[in-house]
Amino acid sequence: xxxxxxxxxxxxxxxxxxxxxxxxxxxxxxxxxxxxxxxxxxxxxxxxxxxxxxxxxxxxxxxxxxxxxxxxxxxxxxxxxxxxxxxxxxxxxxxxxxxxxxxxxxxxxxxxxxxxxxxxxxxxxxxxxxxxxxxxxxxxxxxxxxxxxxxxxxxxxxxxxxxxxxxxxxxxxxxxxxxxxxxxxxxxxxxxxxxxxxxxxxxxxxxxxxxxxxxxxxxxxxxxxxxxxxxxxxxxxxxxxxxxxxxxxxxxxxxxxxxxxxxxxxxxxxxxxxxxxxxxxxxxxxxxxxxxxxxxxxxxxxxxxxxxxxxxxxxxxxxxxxxxxxxxxxxxxxxxxxxxxxxxxxxxxxxxxxxxxxxxxxxxxxxxxxxxxxxxxxxxxxxxxxxxxxxxxxxxxxxxxxxxxxxxxxxxxxxxxxxxxxxxxxxxxxxxxxxxxxxxxxxxxxxxxxxxxxxxx
Length: 457
Hints:
Strand order of the largest sheet: 1-2
Order of helices and strands: HHHHEEHHHHHHHHHHHH
Distance between the termini: 7 Å
Shape: globular
Structural class: mainly alpha
Strand content: under 5%
């Protein structure tokens, strides 16, 4: 068993861990995708059904996470679980997928600030047009804005988990409050008949529902940030299961609420989509509640972006630290700041890698995020299988069956994404990005194989 314990400060309260999970789950997509993906694919009723089904399947998977956190309260989470249950080779595959899934969401959330500014403050940040990539205009002003937030959040994380946790909790609670206010006001002042029909006319209802279910690994990725900071809890690890489940349920409700706001606001939702607004949700809120309502929505989206960046900084750096301790990344990443007690080298590397991303435009980053659902589904499968194997060895038959069922759920998510003709099948560009990342991982593994696999367990 790994011995990377006792090096972090135990400063995270239950509310901080809950805020970490919710803030990681609810990011830019909750506000942008209702008009560009959720409603076009499934309609209001199909989106609600797909999100709730997806949330229930993710909760089944989360039960295995809770079990493993109690058994292995270590930074590194899924990577450590897989190593202990299945071996180092599979642990590397699991960790490699997690790095991409976690890291990519940092610059993506940062570039979402450009979307907020384009709608709330048109023309202010969009200064100095540099070039266009995949139809997306890249402005120097937006690059500077995204880069500034990437650097600021890195500095916050370097200064200590307690400071980052307090920030995360405050932002997560503000996020929930703002969405509740906007939802209540819009629903009270709108014609609910705008929500009909419940499903798109262009596809069968079940295909719409399962196209949303296929997005569940991406939509709810973030609850699995909880085990990454397990060494920093100041409370019993037995509480982690309840914290994860509550964060997933609240996130599902928030997704459905923002989608309902978009669909119900001004006119029948299909007519709204046909008008092709840049940001349908913002258009609805501005025309229903005015600038004040739009400002509240903007605060909610800003909180989601910052909390997502903060959560994935914490998770990515702890994962890289754990992988370094186990020999699958260079030892440089396992450095802990003697002053702040944080993996400062891993945080700085994450920051440096993120600073390249805004220069490539948002569309290319979306290709990366589209395939992070594949990485998340694979990681979920490894984790639930690990829980089943470990619980079988320990005689915990109930957890063993929960683990295997969770593994089947994970493989179901994966099948929706990689099998041609399935509702969530990846776009061509996302498949190319996935293959490139796999190829890089194979080359890196071949380079470290002798020292990593033959090293001490």
